[in-house]
Amino acid sequence: MRAPPPPARRKVLFVEDEAALRRTYDRFFADRYDVAFAASGSEARRQLEQFHPEVLVLDLRLPDTDGVTLLQEIRASHPALPVIVTTSYVSMEPLINVLDLGHSGYLVKPFDMEDLAARIDALG
């Protein structure tokens, strides 16, 4: 008798320009999720079409685009994709800018990786 196949791992795309944080995400989440990474808005757009993530973790500060603009584009092309926004901004302005864009959570850096994992897991 065959064992049932393992459950499919959730596909998570991390859009983060800081290489050290991408490595941390990889170390922490590679055993838990099927992960992909993008260091810029243009890479994120390409990964959205090639990787087809089920959850997106999006840094608001990217080298080639504003994260809010990228989130607006994602909402237009992938309206049901859950997005967790991360930022090192502590002012309220970026939060106000993304509140109406249908994100699924907001974390200010530095944050606990278990907190991020719990948010990803809670998305279905």
Quick tags:
single chain; 124 residues; alpha/beta; Rossmann fold; 5-stranded parallel beta sheet; 5 helices; 5 strands
Can you give a write-up of this model?
This protein has 124 residues and is of the alpha/beta class. It has a single domain, classed as Rossmann fold, CATH 3.40.50.2300. The chain is 39% helix and 19% strand. It has five helices and five strands. The protein has helices spanning 19-29, 41-51, 67-77, 93-98, 113-121; strands at 11-15, 34-38, 55-59, 83-87, 105-108. It has a five-stranded parallel β-sheet with strand order 2-1-3-4-5, sandwiched between helices. The N and C termini lie far apart (30 Å). The mean pLDDT is 88.
- Fraction in beta strands: 15-25%
Straight-line distance between termini: 30 Å
The average pLDDT is 88
Q: Poorly predicted ranges (pLDDT <50, ≥5 residues)? A: none
Q: Return the CATH topology.
A: Rossmann fold
Topology order in helix (H) and strand (E) letters? EHEHEHEHEH
Q: What is the second-level CATH architecture?
A: 3-Layer(aba) Sandwich
Strands, helices and their partners?
Elements lengths: L10 E5 L3 H11 L4 E5 L2 H11 L3 E5 L7 H11 L5 E5 L5 H6 L6 E4 L4 H9 L3
Parallel strand pairs: 1-2, 1-3, 3-4, 4-5
Summarize the structure.
This protein is α/β, with parallel strands linked by helices and 124 residues long.
